[in-house]
Every structure is written in structure tokens, then in C-alpha cells.
Amino acid sequence: MSNMQKFISTAVLVLAAALVLSLSGVGHQSANAAGSAPVTVMNTTSNPVPVAGIVVTAPQTPYSLSFYCWSSTDGYCRAETSIPAGKRFVIEYVSAMLLTSVGAKPLYLQMVTWDALVPSDPAASNSQARNFPIPVTYAMTGGDGDYYSASEKVLLVAEPHTVSNNGETVTFPYVYAGNCGDKALLHGVLTGYLQSLN
Questions:
Q1: Is the pLDDT of residue 29 over 50?
Q2: Fewest CB atoms within 10 Å of the CB: 42, 81, 165, 180?
Q3: What is the pLDDT of residue 52?
């Protein structure tokens, strides 16, 4: 008999022994608690068994906003977006591309949302604004300048809002880029879902 045949024969015998032991119940113990009687649970439609710890939420419809800005003078630009009235935008992901002057080296983009849950300060028109840095990564230098990318998973809540700041109207939420040299081109997408404010 060859070694291969011996191996196969041994494997078949081991599997057969394991099958016999599993069917005979050797090694199994009952899960009853000491001194307790068995319990039978009936789960009917007229008398259902209560279940806790399961939260079922309605499916969320994906929503996205694109943003864009360009400045050819001071290397700063603000890309405003617009949320539908009566809605709250739950932002889950930010992705963007930024073009700067060669060697400008911006550190991050700034995502700015409006938080209506924070008490306002009458002395400051933007006291409910919340700033979140979004890191940028150098991608390449091209004919137009340096290219950076941003890709960040976030969990931000943004509500529609407009303020007047030094005679300029600002719409929330917005993304801005600074420290871009003498020019800045920013475009990207915010993705997430909408919730009703009511």
C-alpha cells in the first residue's frame, strides 16, 4: 500500500470517528441553569415576544452638493453651497481638488457650517459658524501650478443660513481655501443625506 493510500485511509477513519462521536452527543452539555425548569417561549402574532436593542431607521436618500470657486488675484476663494429650505444636510464625505500657484503649499481647506443649536452672540454675526479643517495632499505640479486633493470622511450637520458680514452676504455651508499664492481654483463635492428640520 502506498503512502498516499495510507493517508487517505487514515483521514477517512478519523472523519468517520468524528461523525460517530458528534451523533452520540459525547462532549455536549445541557445549557440549563442549575435548579431551573425548562422554559418554552411562544412567539405568536397576537402575543409577540418583545425584542429590545434593535433600532430600525428609515433608509436615507443620498444627497450631494458640488462647490466651485476661482480667484486669480489673492490666492483665496470661498465656494458657497445652498441647502434646500426646511432641510438639514448631514455631510458624510468631502472630496475636492485645489489648484494653487507653484510652491504655495496650503495646509488644509476649511469647511464652515452653521450650527443653529449653539446660542447666538448678538455681538458677532457669525457666532454660530463652526470651522472644520479638511487636510489636503500634494498631487502634482502641472503647467498651471500645484495640484492638491482632499478626501475626508466626516460627520457634519449643516443648516441653511445666510449672514451679512461687512456688507458681504455669506451663504452656509461653504468651503474655502487660503494660502494659495496668487491664484486659487477649488472644486469638489459634499455627500451625505438630508433631514427635515420639522
A1: no
A2: 42
A3: 63
In a domain, residue 137? The reply is yes
Q: Residue 87 pairs with which residues in a beta bridge?
A: 196
32, part of any domain: no
Q: How many CA atoms lie within 13 A of 97 on its CB side?
A: 8
Q: To which H or E segment does residue 24 belong? A: helix 3-24
- What's the confidence (pLDDT) of residue 14? 52
Sequence-distant (6+) residues with CB within 8 A of 94 are 109, 111, 134, 150, 151, 152, 154, 175, 188, 189, 190
End-to-end Cα distance, the chain: 81
Q: Flag whether 110 is in a domain.
A: yes
Strands (E), the chain: 62-71, 77-80, 87-100, 108-114, 129-135, 137-142, 145-158, 161-165, 168-172, 174-177, 184-196
- Residue 187 bridge partners (DSSP): 68, 97
84 in a domain, yes or no? yes
- Mean residue pLDDT of the chain comes to 78
Domain count, the chain: 1
Work out the pLDDT band at 66, boundaries 50, 70, 90: very high
**CATH code for the domain in which residue 130 is found:** 2.60.120
